[in-house]
Design a protein that fits this description.
Helix content of chain A: 40-55%
Number of helices of chain A: 17
Radius of gyration of chain B: 20 Å
CATH class of the largest domain in chain A: Alpha Beta
Helix content of chain B: 55-70%
Number of domains of chain A: 3
Number of domains of chain B: 1
Strand order of the largest sheet of chain B: 1-2
CATH topology of the largest domain in chain A: Rossmann fold
Oligomer: heterotrimer
Largest sheet of chain B: 2 strands, antiparallel
Distance between the termini of chain A: 77 Å
CATH architecture of chain B: Up-down Bundle
Largest sheet of chain A: 5 strands, parallel
CATH superfamily of chain B: Transmembrane di-heme cytochromes, Chain C
Structural class of chain B: mainly alpha
Chains: A alpha/beta, B mainly alpha, C alpha+beta
Distance between the termini of chain B: 12 Å
Number of helices of chain B: 7
Number of strands of chain A: 9
CATH architecture of the largest domain in chain A: 3-Layer(aba) Sandwich
CATH superfamily of the largest domain in chain A: NADH:ubiquinone oxidoreductase-like, 20kDa subunit
CATH topology of chain B: Fumarate Reductase Cytochrome B subunit
Strand content of chain B: under 5%
Order of helices and strands of chain A: HHHEHHEHEEEEHEHEHEHHHHHHHH
Number of strands of chain B: 2
Shape of chain A: globular
């Protein structure tokens, strides 16, 4: 799969028949109409920033793949990414579970519990070694032998090494699994890190966000099914199709930024009319994410559209670097929470001026400088 | 009384770089301040206020960059007053002595006016520090600017900086350096005035015409 | 006596571990342990109090609004900020729909599989299911063809031989009682509810950008501007969309959730006598009917019930709340044996448990990351049952009518409420009442807008330079009734920074380990006496634990107090 070109003008009749009849039956057997299915495939090619001509190729890939195995591990997490998965719309979580993937382990949704749950995981490790995909949610604490997160009496690090180390690929969902996230915020009491740092030999794709946009997860999985490889990423391991552009550069409020129209206080005229949230501390100018275009909850909205600035949640260590959330620039280390960079800067300038004014007065009053000093050149 | 003679000290490229830097820093500081803490000036979206401010900032940034790089180039080909040697006085024992002398004069510990034709030793050292900060300002500025096009050559050239700074940290650095330059400018103008008065060497006019008066050789 | 270990307890938020001692087919004793610690309270120190809600929201991604609400309320309390009426109404709508959606997900996706055997649905007669469905509800998706399609889909899924998340469960367990037709009905609604929940929660996206983790809360109000004449603010279009979704929510709860709950409960009536717990109930009250901040203006009332005595309602005094760490992996500066009020609370992690990998926790000493909160030194159960009981005791008209109605439908008395089934039923009744109340708050909001009130934020104290404290510490607390129960945040602000931050969350009350006096927490107490048909497949333990809707990061374990050997539950 992947070498054969499908869906273009050069299709043979045989391929066309196969597309129209053979594959249709497989999906209809699963209770999905061909029409709905193709709609999903088109949506997927859009999400992956591929030309629409790729939709048939995606369709073919999904038809042929026998529901690849996926296991979902939760460590130091809040289950926010799991909940995000439940809000996925294309495909929905029902379709993901029943038709697209074989989700063999997921603590929050699985029916089995205790040792029987752990057995399901052990089975995957044994039978699908090197083939399954593992999704990790939550950070991994390294401090004190990992006692800050244990499942079934084993430390998160121990489990991650085994499960991620033997997977085809690891998808780190959310900022905690990608970069350590909230538990890793200063002073990082538990020594929390992201998956790539905890298990350096694993193949990791990072899908940060707090929580991630589920559309980016489904698109990554479909990309893998379609092309049999992982999507191209940036230097932080984030797929370019979802993190290749700055929020500020795709933002619907950008015209107001350029025009010089800003929200000055919550609920003011500018806030009502959708002016730029730059002055309210929006971190769109320093955040790479596809929120403005992909949006959330079936494309209903996203933070800036709903009137609150971006918090920069897809950037590493955003809990420390993007705070305070309601200020344009971070606090200057060593100064109080209220001191802005400008106050400090202006202070330096004024202090300099004052110092030199004093120096000038002393110099002017001072007589008898020795002008006979040797010329130097 | 020492006799003074007029001498050609500052060549054209030095003076041009100085005044381009001056203008660029003023423009960059004003526009940069607005970019960091804008006021709602646009009445309707077609005004493009921030758009123009940023445009001016970026044009001035290019001018400043070229000017700074030219001056660094000239430090290797210009006359002895503009040579890089004048900016690293701490490398020689004589230079270190002269730095101390100037420091003692500035802090009123000595009454001996340090006469020099070019920059005095302490000023030279300060300028090399300032130029280093100029380069940091240029690099962080372009790194931030390049973020609009993550695949561009500029982003590839400056991306490594994000290993040193967080994105917000880089903004903060860029911002605080501006204030340091404002503080430096105050110091710079004052010192030049002081030397003008005390050395009677025409430091102030020198940067316009290139000529300074220096004590005649005896 | 045998020990049973269920680790991890699945279908909950987080990592919970319960160890229980079993003899004669009944649980004799139990220990609840949370095995995950993140230290967020420590991370919050010295930060801007206005940012705190964004941090605390990440305590939990399931009840994803609750910690932001409690956080902004505690900061507003410390700074004495009165929020605009519109902001209060928007918060009520956000809180209300959060409860509704969360309760439905809990019932179908986290709890139902304890009562419903999905594999048995394959043997059902779809026509029989249709008759059963029609007898309890006039929901449109009631035809035999519909149930046949669901059954076929399920069969096709099973035929692939890969059961995914449904593999390895306790299918066929003798404690499953539903006939195949009822199992098919529940399975169909399991799938329907999955689609429904993502639809109705779009209300959070409309009002607050996204769900999970809506990004719209502000100290002093909300961040969604209101303007009927703007396409970028809350306008009529968006309000109508919300109204439509609220209707959808109400219909599903009235025609699917409640009928299913009653139908399933009628097969498991003995569970009205199992899983009682500590018998003390705490509710902070919720849904302010105006912005006065007075407790008598709460739609769901505030109060405490002791020893299952519904004739007396006690007031809540937050100074009587304290947390113990005698069995938790923390240390207090003043040593063990004492409880600390949250304002002087400490979160100093000090792990003394076994090093992983381990098989058993040392339940005689410290065994959990959860602290033991107590009200006047008594353990308290919190949650929908606590809320309904407090409202019942307070004489709340709608609550009394709804509770009495369900009790008479199931032909049981009020004492049945103190049980596993009572908890599950209370959650359903509460959901129904909230879906009926939600449109009223929306009406009030629309009324305000029509009257020209577009305010959403009180900005008087937004700038920290306006927080005049004269060097004093500003103390505040914020209360909220989360889906899982009473939630409190306590904050101390000094020099515009967070000096101390403590959260006492619902699952801390419910999943609490023993305190200094050795008193069991609610989970532990409720498990005592639970019958086990097959100790190697402790389905019954899951039923009681899930009836609390646990929401923490841990795994459940069952242990023997005499130290006899651990029985490993065999894998199918």
């Amino acid at each position: 799969m992947g070498k054969k070109r499908v869906g273009g003008k050069g299709d043979s009749t045989e391929q066309k028949i196969k597309r129209d009849f053979v594959e249709r039956s497989i999906w209809e057997e699963k209770g999905i109409s061909r029409r709905d299915f193709m709609k999903f495939c088109s949506a997927m090619s859009a999400a992956l920033a591929l030309p629409v001509t790729f939709a048939p190729r995606i369709a073919e890939a999904l038809d042929q793949v026998k529901r690849p195995t996926l296991v979902w591990l939760e460590f130091q997490d809040c289950a926010g990414n799991t909940e995000a998965l439940l809000r996925a719309s294309s495909p929905t979580v029902t379709e993901l579970v029943l038709d697209v993937l074989s989700i063999d382990y997921h603590e929050t949704i699985m029916a089995a519990a205790g040792h029987q749950a752990e057995a399901a995981l052990a089975k995957v490790l044994k039978e699908q070694k090197g083939k399954y995909i593992v999704v990790v949610e939550g950070s991994i604490p390294l401090k004190d032998n990992g006692v800050y997160c244990c499942i079934g009496g084993r430390s998160a690090l121990d489990i991650a090494r085994e499960v991620c180390g033997n997977a085809f690929a690891t998808i780190a969902v959310g900022s905690c699994a990608s970069f350590g996230g909230l538990p890793a915020a200063a002073p990082n009491p538990t020594g929390a890190v992201g998956v790539k740092e905890a298990v350096p030999n694993a193949r990791v794709i990072n899908l940060p966000g707090c929580p991630l946009n589920p559309d980016n997860l489904t698109a990554t999985v479909v990309h893998y099914l379609t092309f049999n490889k992982l999507p191209t990423t940036d230097s932080l391991g984030r797929p370019l199709f979802a993190y290749g552009k700055r929020i500020h550069d795709a933002c619907e409020r950008r015209p107001h930024f350029d025009a010089g129209q800003y929200v000055e206080s919550w609920g003011d005229h500018g806030h009502k009319k959708g002016f730029c949230l730059y002055k309210m501390g929006c971190k769109g100018p320093e955040t790479f994410h596809n929120c403005p275009t992909q949006r959330y909850n079936e494309k209903t909205s996203w933070p800036v559209a709903a009137g609150h600035g971006c918090a920069g949640c897809s950037e590493p260590q955003f809990w420390d670097t993007m705070t305070p959330f309601y200020k344009r620039l971070p606090n200057v280390p060593g100064f109080g929470i209220e001191s802005t960079a400008d106050k400090i800067g202006a202070g330096i300038a004024v202090a300099t001026a004052a110092a030199f004014a004093a120096h000038g007065v002393v110099s002017a009053l001072r007589k008898g400088d020795d002008q006979s000093g040797k010329k130097e050149d | 009384m020492t006799t003074m003679v007029i001498k050609y000290v500052w060549e054209v490229p030095v003076r041009v770089a100085h005044w381009v830097n001056f203008l660029a820093i003023v423009i960059l500081s004003v526009t940069g301040y607005y970019i960091g803490a804008p006021k709602t000036l646009g009445v309707d979206p077609s005004r493009f206020v921030m758009g123009w401010v940023r445009f001016i900032h970026f044009v001035a940034a290019y001018a400043f960059t070229v000017s700074v790089l030219s001056r660094i180039y000239w430090a290797f080909v210009g006359n002895s007053y503009s040579s890089w040697r004048a900016y690293v006085p701490w490398l020689t024992s004589e230079g270190r002595y002269r730095m101390l002398e100037t420091f003692r004069y500035y802090t009123f510990m000595s009454r001996k006016v340090p006469h020099v034709t070019g920059h005095n030793a302490l000023a030279g050292a300060t300028y090399s520090l300032v130029y280093c900060l100029f380069l940091v300002q240029v690099a962080t500025g372009f790194a931030l600017y390049a973020e609009h096009a993550p695949a561009s050559v500029m982003h590839k050239l400056t991306g490594w900086l994000f290993l040193l700074f967080s994105n917000q940290g880089m903004r903060l650095t860029h911002h605080l350096l501006m204030w340091l330059f404002v503080a430096f400018a105050i110091h710079h103008v004052y010192s030049a005035w002081l030397m003008d008065v005390k050395e009677r060497g025409g430091v102030m006019s020198g940067i316009f015409g290139g000529y300074k008066s220096v004590p005649e050789k005896e | 006596m045998d020990k049973i270990v269920i680790d991890p307890i699945t279908r909950i938020e987080g990592h919970l571990r319960i160890e229980a001692a079993v003899e004669g087919g009944r649980v004799q004793d139990a220990w609840s342990s949370s095995t995950m610690f993140r230290g967020i309270e420590k991370i919050l120190k010295t930060r801007d109090p206005r940012d705190a809600w964004y941090f605390t929201q990440r305590f939990c991604g399931v009840c994803t609004t609750v910690h932001s609400i409690a956080s902004i309320r505690c900061v507003e309390n410390a700074l004495k900020i009165k929020i605009p009426a519109n902001a209060e109404l928007i918060r009520n709508i956000i809180i209300g729909i959060q409860n509704v959606q969360d309760h439905v997900i809990h019932f179908y996706h986290l709890h139902a599989l304890d009562w419903v055997d999905i594999t048995s649905a394959l043997k059902a007669d779809p026509a029989g299911t249709a008759r059963l469905a029609a007898s309890i509800s006039d929901w449109p998706n009631n035809s035999a063809t519909y149930f046949k399609a669901v059954q076929d889909k399920l069969q096709a899924f099973v035929n692939t031989g890969r059961l995914g998340p449904f593999a390895n469960a306790y299918w066929g367990h003798p404690a499953y009682r539903l006939p195949p037709e009822a199992n098919l009905l529940a399975t169909a609604h399991y799938l329907e509810a999955l689609d429904w929940q993502k639809e109705v929660i779009r209300i959070h996206a409309i009002l607050g950008s996204k769900n999970p983790h809506p990004q719209t809360f502000l100290v002093g109000g909300m961040a969604i501007a209101i303007d009927p004449d703007s396409q970028t603010a809350l306008n009529d279009q968006k309000l109508s969309e919300i109204r439509g979704l609220l209707k959808k929510a109400q219909q599903f709860v009235e025609k699917v959730y409640l009928p299913d709950l009653k139908a399933i409960a009628s097969f498991y009536k003995e569970w009205a006598g199992i899983g009682g717990g500590v018998g003390n109930f705490l509710s902070y009250g919720e849904y302010p009917q105006d912005n006065s901040g007075k407790s008598e203006m709460l739609w769901m009332p505030r109060g405490i019930i002791l020893n299952q005595d519904l004739s007396k309602l006690h007031p809540v005094d937050h100074l009587k709340i304290s947390e113990y760490v005698d069995h938790s992996w923390y240390s207090y500066t003043d040593g063990p044996g004492k409880g600390l009020h949250p304002w002087s609370g400490e979160t100093e992690a000090r792990y003394t448990g076994p090093q992983p990998p381990y098989k058993e926790l040392d339940t005689d000493h410290k065994y959990s990351w959860v602290k033991a909160p107590r009200y006047a030194d008594k353990p308290m159960e919190v949650g929908p049952l606590a809320r309904l009981l407090v409202a019942y005791a307070a004489g709340h008209k709608e609550v009394k009518a709804a509770v009495n109605g369900v009790l008479s439908d199931l032909k049981v008395g009020p004492e049945a409420l103190f049980s596993t089934l009572g908890r599950t039923a209370a959650r359903g009744i509460e959901t129904l009442l909230i879906t009926r109340e939600l449109p009223k708050w929306l009406d009030q909001l629309v009324g305000n807008i029509a009257g020209g009130d577009l305010t959403i934020h009180n900005g008087e104290k937004w700038d920290p330079s306006s927080w005049h404290s004269d060097g004093k510490i500003l103390d505040g607390y914020g209360w909220h009734e989360a889906p899982r129960g009473a939630l409190g945040h306590w904050i101390r602000i000094k020099d515009k920074q967070i000096l101390n931050y403590q959260a006492v969350v619902p699952s801390t009350w419910n999943a609490s380990p023993r305190d200094a006096k050795g008193l069991r927490g609610p989970y532990e107490a409720a498990l005592v006496g639970t019958p086990l048909a097959d100790p190697t497949k402790p389905l019954e333990i899951l039923r009681t634990i899930h009836s609390f809707d646990p929401c923490l990061a841990c795994a459940v374990h069952v242990v023997d107090p005499d130290g006899s050997e651990l029985v490993r539950v065999k894998v199918l």
